[in-house]
Amino acid sequence: PDAVTRLGDRLARTEQLILDQSRYRTILESLPQTLCHHDAVGANIFRSHGRTVLIDWESVGAGPVGADLASLVFSSVRRGDALAGVMLPVVEEALVRYAAALRAEAPSVTVEEVRLGFDASVALRWKLAVDVVAGLEKGQPPRRGSLPDEDPDVALEELIGLVDLLLASADRALHPARDPGP
Questions:
Q1: pLDDT band at 1, cuts 50/70/90?
Q2: CB within 8 A of 98, min separation 6: which ones?
Q3: Structural domains of the chain in order of their starting residue, each with its CATH number
Q4: Which residue, 79, 96, 126, 139, is most buried by CB atoms nearer than 10 A?
Q5: What is the pTM of this model?
Protein backbone atom coordinates (compact mmCIF):
# COMPACT_ATOMS: atom_id res chain seq x y z
CA PRO A 1 0.00 0.00 0.00
CA ASP A 2 2.79 2.48 0.79
CA ALA A 3 4.40 1.78 -2.60
CA VAL A 4 1.09 2.35 -4.39
CA THR A 5 0.57 5.61 -2.51
CA ARG A 6 4.11 6.86 -3.19
CA LEU A 7 4.63 5.54 -6.72
CA GLY A 8 1.15 5.38 -8.27
CA ASP A 9 1.21 4.63 -12.00
CA ARG A 10 4.98 4.17 -11.86
CA LEU A 11 4.32 0.60 -10.70
CA ALA A 12 2.54 -0.49 -13.89
CA ARG A 13 5.13 1.34 -15.98
CA THR A 14 7.90 -0.47 -14.08
CA GLU A 15 6.26 -3.82 -14.77
CA GLN A 16 6.20 -3.00 -18.49
CA LEU A 17 9.82 -1.84 -18.31
CA ILE A 18 10.84 -5.21 -16.90
CA LEU A 19 8.89 -7.06 -19.59
CA ASP A 20 10.59 -4.96 -22.30
CA GLN A 21 14.20 -5.66 -21.23
CA SER A 22 15.03 -7.69 -24.35
CA ARG A 23 13.91 -4.76 -26.50
CA TYR A 24 16.37 -2.43 -24.76
CA ARG A 25 19.21 -4.91 -25.23
CA THR A 26 18.34 -5.17 -28.94
CA ILE A 27 18.47 -1.37 -29.24
CA LEU A 28 21.87 -1.24 -27.54
CA GLU A 29 23.24 -3.99 -29.79
CA SER A 30 22.21 -1.95 -32.85
CA LEU A 31 24.14 1.17 -31.85
CA PRO A 32 27.75 2.12 -32.67
CA GLN A 33 30.22 0.82 -30.13
CA THR A 34 32.91 2.81 -28.35
CA LEU A 35 35.42 2.30 -25.58
CA CYS A 36 33.55 2.40 -22.27
CA HIS A 37 34.70 2.61 -18.67
CA HIS A 38 31.55 0.73 -17.53
CA ASP A 39 31.83 2.20 -14.01
CA ALA A 40 31.86 5.92 -14.70
CA VAL A 41 30.39 7.11 -11.41
CA GLY A 42 31.21 10.19 -9.41
CA ALA A 43 33.46 8.24 -7.04
CA ASN A 44 35.67 7.19 -9.97
CA ILE A 45 36.01 10.64 -11.55
CA PHE A 46 37.95 13.58 -10.18
CA ARG A 47 39.95 16.63 -11.20
CA SER A 48 43.73 16.67 -10.86
CA HIS A 49 45.99 19.46 -12.09
CA GLY A 50 43.21 20.84 -14.28
CA ARG A 51 42.45 17.48 -15.92
CA THR A 52 39.57 15.09 -15.51
CA VAL A 53 40.82 11.71 -14.34
CA LEU A 54 38.96 8.40 -14.28
CA ILE A 55 40.10 5.59 -12.01
CA ASP A 56 39.03 1.97 -11.51
CA TRP A 57 39.28 0.71 -15.08
CA GLU A 58 38.75 -2.98 -14.30
CA SER A 59 35.56 -3.16 -16.41
CA VAL A 60 36.84 -1.30 -19.48
CA GLY A 61 35.68 -2.57 -22.84
CA ALA A 62 33.44 -1.97 -25.79
CA GLY A 63 29.95 -0.65 -25.21
CA PRO A 64 27.21 1.28 -26.96
CA VAL A 65 27.52 5.04 -27.33
CA GLY A 66 25.82 6.77 -24.42
CA ALA A 67 26.27 3.88 -21.97
CA ASP A 68 29.00 5.55 -19.89
CA LEU A 69 26.99 8.75 -19.67
CA ALA A 70 24.06 6.68 -18.36
CA SER A 71 26.35 5.25 -15.68
CA LEU A 72 27.64 8.67 -14.75
CA VAL A 73 24.20 10.21 -14.33
CA PHE A 74 22.15 7.30 -13.03
CA SER A 75 24.65 5.47 -10.85
CA SER A 76 26.12 8.64 -9.36
CA VAL A 77 22.70 9.67 -8.07
CA ARG A 78 21.81 6.16 -6.94
CA ARG A 79 25.07 5.83 -5.00
CA GLY A 80 24.73 9.26 -3.45
CA ASP A 81 27.70 10.79 -5.27
CA ALA A 82 25.36 13.37 -6.84
CA LEU A 83 21.91 14.85 -6.40
CA ALA A 84 19.09 14.23 -8.87
CA GLY A 85 18.28 17.94 -8.79
CA VAL A 86 21.80 18.72 -9.97
CA MET A 87 22.30 15.91 -12.50
CA LEU A 88 18.92 15.65 -14.23
CA PRO A 89 18.75 19.27 -15.43
CA VAL A 90 22.11 18.93 -17.20
CA VAL A 91 21.43 15.63 -19.00
CA GLU A 92 20.59 17.29 -22.33
CA GLU A 93 23.73 19.41 -22.34
CA ALA A 94 25.81 16.40 -21.28
CA LEU A 95 24.39 14.36 -24.18
CA VAL A 96 25.27 17.07 -26.69
CA ARG A 97 28.80 17.48 -25.29
CA TYR A 98 29.37 13.73 -25.08
CA ALA A 99 28.29 13.31 -28.72
CA ALA A 100 30.49 16.22 -29.84
CA ALA A 101 33.53 14.75 -28.12
CA LEU A 102 32.78 11.30 -29.53
CA ARG A 103 32.47 12.69 -33.05
CA ALA A 104 36.12 13.79 -32.86
CA GLU A 105 36.96 10.08 -33.18
CA ALA A 106 33.81 8.79 -34.87
CA PRO A 107 32.33 11.57 -37.05
CA SER A 108 29.28 9.56 -38.06
CA VAL A 109 27.90 9.18 -34.52
CA THR A 110 24.82 11.34 -34.01
CA VAL A 111 23.35 12.97 -30.92
CA GLU A 112 20.25 10.86 -31.55
CA GLU A 113 22.29 7.64 -31.32
CA VAL A 114 23.92 8.86 -28.11
CA ARG A 115 20.49 9.75 -26.69
CA LEU A 116 19.15 6.33 -27.64
CA GLY A 117 22.17 4.61 -26.07
CA PHE A 118 21.77 6.68 -22.92
CA ASP A 119 18.05 5.97 -22.67
CA ALA A 120 18.30 2.24 -23.39
CA SER A 121 21.23 1.92 -20.95
CA VAL A 122 19.25 3.67 -18.23
CA ALA A 123 16.27 1.39 -19.00
CA LEU A 124 18.37 -1.66 -18.09
CA ARG A 125 18.56 -0.34 -14.52
CA TRP A 126 15.04 -1.52 -13.62
CA LYS A 127 16.27 -2.98 -10.31
CA LEU A 128 16.17 0.50 -8.76
CA ALA A 129 12.37 0.66 -9.02
CA VAL A 130 12.06 -2.84 -7.59
CA ASP A 131 14.38 -1.91 -4.70
CA VAL A 132 12.38 1.25 -3.93
CA VAL A 133 9.12 -0.74 -3.87
CA ALA A 134 10.63 -3.51 -1.72
CA GLY A 135 12.00 -0.99 0.76
CA LEU A 136 8.67 0.80 1.03
CA GLU A 137 6.78 -2.46 1.52
CA LYS A 138 9.23 -3.68 4.20
CA GLY A 139 9.21 -0.32 5.94
CA GLN A 140 12.97 -0.05 5.52
CA PRO A 141 14.37 3.45 5.14
CA PRO A 142 15.93 3.93 1.73
CA ARG A 143 19.69 4.39 1.44
CA ARG A 144 21.97 5.66 -1.24
CA GLY A 145 25.27 3.78 -1.13
CA SER A 146 27.72 6.57 -0.31
CA LEU A 147 25.37 8.33 2.12
CA PRO A 148 24.39 5.90 4.90
CA ASP A 149 23.41 8.79 7.21
CA GLU A 150 21.27 10.64 4.65
CA ASP A 151 17.79 11.54 5.88
CA PRO A 152 15.50 8.71 4.67
CA ASP A 153 12.92 11.15 3.27
CA VAL A 154 15.63 12.90 1.23
CA ALA A 155 17.00 9.56 0.03
CA LEU A 156 13.52 8.42 -1.00
CA GLU A 157 12.87 11.62 -2.94
CA GLU A 158 16.22 11.27 -4.71
CA LEU A 159 15.48 7.66 -5.61
CA ILE A 160 11.95 8.42 -6.80
CA GLY A 161 13.41 11.20 -8.98
CA LEU A 162 15.72 8.58 -10.42
CA VAL A 163 12.79 6.20 -11.00
CA ASP A 164 11.18 9.02 -12.98
CA LEU A 165 14.35 9.30 -15.12
CA LEU A 166 14.36 5.51 -15.53
CA LEU A 167 10.78 5.42 -16.77
CA ALA A 168 11.11 8.46 -19.03
CA SER A 169 14.29 7.05 -20.58
CA ALA A 170 12.64 3.67 -21.08
CA ASP A 171 9.71 5.29 -22.86
CA ARG A 172 11.97 7.45 -25.05
CA ALA A 173 14.11 4.45 -26.01
CA LEU A 174 11.09 2.57 -27.35
CA HIS A 175 9.33 5.65 -28.72
CA PRO A 176 12.05 8.17 -29.74
CA ALA A 177 9.53 10.55 -31.31
CA ARG A 178 7.90 11.15 -27.91
CA ASP A 179 9.64 13.13 -25.20
CA PRO A 180 8.10 12.37 -21.79
CA GLY A 181 10.53 14.65 -19.94
CA PRO A 182 13.45 13.92 -17.60
A1: confident
A2: 66, 69, 114
A3: 2-174 (3.90.1200)
A4: 126
A5: 0.91
